[in-house]
Structures are given as structure tokens and as C-alpha cells.
Amino acid sequence: MNSNIVTIILAAGLGKRMKSGLAKVLHPVAGIPMILYPIQIAEDISSERIIVVIGHQAERVKGLLSDRVVEVVHQTEQKGTADAVRLAMDAIRGYQGMVVVLCGDVPLITSKTVSDLIAVHQEGNASMTVLTTEVDDATGYGRIVRGPDGSILRIVEDRDADEGTKAINEINTGIYVFDGRFLSEVINEIRPENVQEEFYLTDSIEIGLKRGLRVYACKILQKEEVIGVNSRVELALVDSLMRRRINNSHMLNGVTLINPESIYIDAGVSIAQDVTLYPGTTLQGNTSIGKGGVIYPNSRIVDSYIGHHVVIKDSCVIEESRVNEGSQVGPFAHLRSGTVLEKDARIGNYVELKKTVMGEGSKANHLTYLGDAEIGSGVNIGAGTITCNFDGEKKHKTIIGNNVFVGSDVQFIAPVKIGDGAFIGAGSTVTKDVPPGALAISRPEQKNMEGWVERKKKSK
Ligand code: UD1
Ligand code: MG
Q: Quick one: which atom of ligand 1 is closest to the CA of 200?
């Protein structure tokens, strides 16, 4: 529906009040840098070009955007919102369509609201339409000054406002739609005549009105959407609102969240139907959960694939791993980077895996470390088994075939290979390869000294 839209995203501000070494727009909201939200909106409204104006840590921002179809314009000195827009307009010289301006630090805005704003702008045949809202405390925002007939006259910045103007609680959200021809002219006429000596984009309203053009202010009721992040207090507020939005959308898609206030799901995590998440579940990064699974309290899963009908018991950490259909993990298990559990595997209490493949139906139920191991299907790993994969300099592999039985308290001194169907006696230290079907046992033979305890007592 929206033909010819260029979206400009203003993101060059320093964010002084964040008191951070990290540029404001790189701070995460629901797990992803906040700049990605307005970029998503720009994509959702089918912008033909997206221009991001960046200043601080430009290289880092650029790196983050390298896989998106966006153009980056560098504003070396932050001389105001109009200066930032002027730089972006230089990149689209001669463009005649619509220009949408979004802010890099207003992540909760929805594409519905922006589309509605565009519709108002188009229907009114306006040169400029600004999105406004009413807030309880307007401190810091530009105030919307309307005339007797209710139409907008100008925006006055907090620092330039007299007491009467400060009492207005309708504010500028910093989101606008412009006619590209109007914007390209007006942007070069704005002068820094204000307390801050900055180029104010908001001055375009008066310039437009003086020329007899149509300028609209469109007020929305969802003031939550336009909260700007200036300090970490607002960051926390926006983060919690975003997470509530994410949790609600999963619930509406058929996921049960028990006490959703305690569940943290990053933007971009996918969860299939009929999954149940217990309190304290944290799902981060690029994680997906297959249908019908249950995640009991207090587990954290990062950048991992979890298949259908997987059960994760309490207090597990799963990082960069794949857990296939029907497997069970935990309680208190740690799957580190590069772990793969094939179908129906079982990983139990206090088990740690790293770069290890557990074959179909294989089990390690208690107190075990398996690192750099390839384990076949139908294998039983006894309690206390350890792969000694590190010799102080290098890592080595342990390869275990199918249907191997490993008794409790076995150490595999890698590199070592165990053939299919072999049997490893409890308490063994395995230093040599074991052929298929063989019994390997390496513990010293037991000696019983009859009457030893009684003799010891007497000698005291
Ligand atoms: C701006 C508006 C104000 C509005 C408020 C909403 C102006 C003059 N004022 O004020 O009316 O109520 O936003 O949040 O426009 N930026 C740049 N380069 C610059 C300056 C700013 O890229 O030189 C970017 C910032 O990174 C930010 C956005 O523009 O994303 C808004 O700038 P900010 O300094 O926060 O403006 P406010 O004073 O909040
Ligand atoms: Mg601001």
C-alpha cells in the first residue's frame, strides 16, 4: 500500500545520560540492540531505502547492520535533529516520495502506529505530519502548541519553553512523515536559533505553515509505544514492556507461560505450540523450541535448537547446542557449545557436556563430564565417568561406538576409541583402544585382609 517510502532513522546521539562506554542504540532491549527495532519497522512498512544516521561507535553500529539492507550516514558532530536529517537527505538527493523519520532510541513503536500515521498524512495530502501523545510528565520533551481551532502551530523544546508552554502535556514523539520535496527544501532553511544552538527538525512546522502548506499533528493514545530511552531507568522500563509484549505474543501462539513476569524471552526466539515454560526460564539469542516440550524452573538456553517433546528439568544451562526430539536434560545439567543430543538421549543430574555428540537413546544420568566425545547410539555412561580430553596443551577426542556399556567412575584418557558393543568395567582408567565386543577393566585387583580391624585396635 505504501508506495515510495524512504525511512530515516536518527541514531547519532551520544546518550550521555546512559553513562556508558557503549553507544545508546547498541544497548539491548529484550536481548537485541535497540537500533534493530526501528529498522524492523522500516522494513515492515516496505521502505525502499533505509538510512541510518549514526555518530558514536559508527563502526560497531555498521558491523551490526552489515547483513541488513540499510545505508549508513555518518554525522561526526551532533548539531541537532535537523542536521542529522539533512545528512540523510544528501544521500537521496532528488527523491520526491514520502520520508518517514524514526528515532533509534524509541524501540516500542509499532508498524501499525507508523502505518496509521502515514495514512493520516496521505489522506490529508500533508507536507508534514508529526506523531504526538499526551504524557503525565512532559519534562524534557518538545511541547505541541495548537491554535484555537486545534491545529498545530509549532513545537517548543523544553529548554526554550516558558512556564505556560511547559504546562502543555501533549508532546512530540520525534516520529514524522514528510513529503520528500518539502523536506529537502526546508532542511536547508532551518537555523540554530535556540537555547541549545542546535538545528531543530521541529522548526520545519512553522516554516511549512508560513508557506501555507498542510502540517498535521496526529495524537496516539498508546503512549507506551513512544517512550524514549535516555537513561538506564527508561531502558529497564522499555525492556520490561518489550518482554511483556513478547511473552504475550507467545501465549497467543499457544505457549503456556507459568508466571510470565518471571520468564525472559529474547526477541527472535521461536517457540512452537504446546510448550510449557515454568518460572525463571530464560531463552536467549537465536534459540528455537519444538512443540510439546516442557522447561521446568530456572533454566537458561542460549543460541540453541531444542526439538519436539524435549523435557528440560530444573536449573540447566544450554549454550550453542542441539537437543533433538524426545531427549531429556537435567536437573542441573550444563550443555556447552557444540553439544548434540540425538533423538531420545538422556542427560541427568550434574552432567556437563562440551563439543560432544550423544547418539540416539544414549544416557549419561549422573555426575559426568564428556568433552570432545563422539558417542554412538544406545550407550550407557555410568555415574562419575570423565573424558580426560586435555593433556595440558591440546584437546583430544574420545570415540565410543554403539551399544557400549560404560560402568561407573571410568576415565577415558583421550585420544581413545571404544568399539561397538564393548563393556568397560566400573572404576577403569582407559588408556588404550578397546576392540568391539571386548571387556576392558583396568582397576587393581582387590585384596581382603582378614581380621585387620581387630588387630589394629589391639595394637593401640
Ligand atoms: C527530540 C525533539 C523533541 C521530542 C523528542 C522525543 C527536536 C529538536 N526535538 O528532542 O521535540 O519531544 O525528541 O524524544 O527534534 N540525533 C542525531 N543527531 C543529532 C541529534 C539527535 O542523530 O545531532 C538523534 C538522537 O540519537 C535521537 C534523536 O535524534 O535518536 C532525538 O534526539 P535527542 O537529542 O534525543 O532529542 P531530544 O532533545 O530528546
Ligand atoms: Mg531524546
A: 8
